[in-house]
Amino acid sequence: MASWDPQQYERFADERARPFRELVARIPTTSAVAVVDLGCGPGTMTATLATRWPDAAILGLDSSPAMIAAAAEHRSAQLTFQLADAAEWRPQRGSLDVIVANASLQWVGDHETLLPLWAAALDDGGTLAFQVPLSFDPGMVAVAARERWAPLLGGASGTTGPRSASPVLGAADYVRLLSGAGLTVDAWETTYYHVLPGEDPVFEWFKGTGLRPYLDALSGADLEEFTADVKERMRQLYPREPFGTILPFPRLFVVAQRA
Ligand SMILES: C[S@@+](CC[C@H](N)C(=O)[O-])C[C@H]1O[C@@H](n2cnc3c(N)ncnc32)[C@H](O)[C@@H]1O
Q: By percentage, how much of the chain surpasses pLDDT 70?
């Protein structure tokens, strides 16, 4: 499993915060006593849930020790964090009011099995809300598939592109799956047109997420050369303009409530 770097992830904190806020704003559950943030990362966004549900015990779960260590800084009487793999997480039936998973389920397989189990964990009025990036290749998947890199990167894959075997389903599949589990489902897609500052900002963005499996698989001169190849491809796909670099980023949102 590739390692996560909380500092690199937080470099685009504002851009990454927006989908979280827009997801949470659509959750209809007004009062909550038990809230879980699945794949909570460095806990920055988890902490904002305390304002929305001031009476709730809020638990952030993440499978990365580095992320859980960073999240510890937000610990309080209301907020706790634990190391846990979402794939193994089995909450008790009817025990939760809100489950949030922002930008994390694209790293977790078998949604067909897990989502109904999590839906069953919701109490009446409770909501399961998640957001996942929609599959696209910002340059790295195509570079990794080149003859030069395929033998070295055969086992690595990012969250996007044809080699990734992304576990993310289509919006209609989630509507069917969660309606079948007894929830009322609101699903939508949005493309954000982020304007990123600085040199090679698209590389810097994905270095904190989808590029990690590739970069972790290389070292030394290979790593330098692959980095140069990916940066060059990304500059072609997302040219720098006088005001910054435009990164169109499509995302899928699902908010499902047990009425
Ligand atoms: C892109 S970050 C999102 C962090 C946070 N939800 C946010 O909105 O800022 C993805 C997080 O999912 C976590 N993650 C990946 N696979 C996971 C799994 N199987 N179980 C729990 N967390 C996982 C990663 O460690 C990482 O912290």
A: 95
